[in-house]
Design goal:
This protein has 216 residues and is α/β, with parallel strands linked by helices. Helices cover 44% and strands 17% of the residues. The chain is built from 10 helices and 6 strands, in the order βαβαβααβααααααββ. α1 packs parallel to α8. The relative contact order is 0.17.
């Protein structure tokens, strides 16, 4: 009797590309928050240590495919970045429709969305300024100095003689960022997270005092 060949089922993955260590820490905390409220599957986070442009995302997806023992279907690809890179004219903004089309056509991607951290992930941190000041053991009436969120966060860390490196300073900054109230940050950034939460299947979140949350 001929033995039937086993059907290889594809591995379904959701991938989040982030542009630095600080972003990775915050997004990972956000995913943990969703998981504590019922999110079943952990998305894959890839840190590109710089703006995750189309080339870096395609390289990351190709590598995941090559390392997998089974075919990979990317249920979703998420690109997280600071908006100030375009607002300050540091880099020209990509044609996002073209990026999405290329990812879907060439890498078996079902859905694509962006997390636009306005104007930077440091501004998200400052949504829980009290938590950051407590983590750094600074007086709660401390007023961050600087024009932009990045400047203000760097200045706060500098007061404790800590060099804040958002792209490659994970070991130094993680103990402090881990103490931030991610529920408070998420509440303040619901608009920026709307597409991301839809892709994850997150719904039914109220405010921080909500008695019941729901994640599909």
């Amino acid at each position: 009797m001929t033995k039937k060949k086993a059907i290889t089922r594809p591995d379904h993955i959701k991938v989040i590309f982030v542009e630095g260590d600080a972003d990775e820490i915050i997004i990972d905390k956000l995913i943990s928050y969703y998981r504590s409220n019922g999110l079943k599957k952990q998305p894959k986070i890839i840190n590109t240590h710089g703006f995750p442009d189309e080339k870096k995302m395609r390289q990351g997806l190709t590598k995941l495919n090559m390392c997998s023992k089974t075919p990979v279907e990317f249920d979703a690809v998420v690109c997280e970045y600071d908006t100030d890179i375009f607002e300050k004219g540091i880099q020209q903004e990509p044609d996002w429709k073209k990026v999405e089309k290329n990812l879907k056509q060439n890498h078996n991607v079902t859905s694509f969305c962006r997390i636009q951290a306005k104007t930077s992930i440091e501004d998200w941190m400052l949504d829980d300024l009290e938590g950051l000041l407590k983590a750094l053991d600074l007086p709660l009436d401390t007023q961050p100095k600087g024009q932009y969120g990045q400047d203000k966060v760097k200045a706060l860390f500098r007061r404790k003689n800590i060099v804040y490196d958002r792209h490659k300073g994970r070991e130094k900054i993680k103990p402090y960022l881990d103490k931030l109230d991610i529920a408070k940050i998420r509440e303040a950034r619901k608009k920026e997270l709307k597409g991301f939460e839809k892709i994850l299947g997150v719904k039914g979140f109220g405010n921080n005092n909500s008695k019941k949350n729901s994640v599909l």
